[in-house]
Every structure is written in structure tokens, then in C-alpha cells.
Amino acid sequence: MAAPGRALFVVSAADHWTLRDGTRHPSGFWGEELAVPHREFVSAGWRITLATPGGTPPTLDRRSMSRTAGLPGTLREVATYLGSIREELARPAALEGVDPDDFDTVFYPGGHGPMEDLSHDPASGALLTRALRSGKPLGLLCHAPAALLAARDEDGSWPFAGYRMTALSTTEEKLSGFGRKAPWYLEDRLRADGARYVKGRLPLLPFTTSDRNLHTGQNPASSARLAARLLAAPSR
């Protein structure tokens, strides 16, 4: 395991996801995807900085705390942990002013929020490009790889082309009724941009993959496994 250091958690500031029919589905970050990695990093002695676009306090997707989102005991643990970092969530740093060189690891939790804002956020895109080139561990979970779509090299090419990665699959997205109204599907967009997209044999089960310093997880169930990968990854 890498020695404890500083981790940057980049969280969506969106509170909804605009569907294909123009309706706004309430959204934000997924509770488990932020709480579990945050807890694992803190337990390992790391210092964490939370950042969002504009320094806007992030919105918890209430659906991530519903009975369909997980086992009752797990949801209680997530709720308790999020409550313990309430002050931290209320005062995130502004992403636009963050220097990725100040951190040893960069992590993006998911939820539908990144589909709404980070997928085209220039500050996030520039940060991801620098983080990738630095060789430091970079992790994105579930819908968070949507943020990769905003990254571009100076010549306009996509720096993540050819990288093996995972994210929420189209099959998993369509398991929810509103998911069938998605304006676009993350798996499809990543493939179209040149990613080597991979996924687990069965939906909703933990699945993670790594390619060089890029580490990705497919779904909320992959939260702990992805955090473990990042904590074990060598840092430059």
C-alpha cells in the first residue's frame, strides 16, 4: 500500500440530470460511491480535499439512500458516515482553483451528476489530462468516467483513447425506468471516443479494471474494490 498522502475527491455540483424528453431527474452524487472510498482513505491515514465546480456544495442523490440502493445495514453506515463529514461537504474547494500537482491521488465518485456537468466541464477536463500525464493514480467510479469526455490534449485529441476502462454499462443504465430516457449512454460514448471499454459478466456486481495509472469501477458495488486499488497503486 502506498504511504498516506493527499487525495483530491472531485464531486459533481449538479442536482439533476436532464433526460431526453427535457425533464429534469433529481440527482447528484451517489452516497455509497463517495462515503466508502472516503472512509477507506481516511482509515489509511490520507488527507482528503473535496472539490466541486464553483465550490458549490454537492447534492446527495436521495435515490442512492432508498431501499432499492442497497442492504439496510449498508445504507445506514453510508448515511452515518456522510453525516460525519457534513461540514466537509458543505465547504468544498472550487475545482477551478485546484492544482492537481498538490495531490498524490485523484478520485471521482459517480451518480448521475457527472453526466450533467463534469462531462463537459473544461476545468475538470484539464485537471484529468494533467492527472493522467502525471502518472499518479487516477480513479473514476460508475458514472464518473463521463468526466473523461471533457479531457483534451493540446491538439484536440482525447488523452484517454486506447485506455482500458469501465463505467456503468448501458444494460445497467436501462434497469431503471428513467434510464431508458437517457440523452446518451456512457458506455456507448466511451467506446465512440476510443476507449477500450470492458465490463463484468453480470450487471450490478463489483468490477474494476486498471490500465497504467487509470483505475475505474463499473457501479456502486465496486466502491470498496476501487478504493483498495487506488490505495495499493504506486504514486509518483
Can you describe what's shown?
The chain is an alpha/beta fold and 236 residues long. The chain is 30% helix and 17% strand. It is built from eight helices and eleven strands. The chain has helices at 31-43, 72-84, 86-90, 113-116, 122-134, 170-173, 186-193, 223-232; strands spanning 6-10, 16-18, 24-26, 47-52, 93-94, 105-108, 138-141, 164-165, 196-197, 208-211, 214-217. Strands 5-4-1-6-7-11-10 form a seven-stranded mixed β-sheet, sandwiched between helices. A hairpin with a 2-residue loop joins strand 10 and strand 11. Helix 1 crosses helix 2 and helix 1 runs parallel beside helix 8 (223-232). The longest helix is centred in the first third of the chain and has 13 residues, at 31-43. The chain is globular. It starts with 5 loop residues before the first strand and ends with a helix.
Highlighted features:
single chain, 236 residues, alpha/beta, seven-stranded mixed beta sheet, two-stranded antiparallel sheet, 8 helices
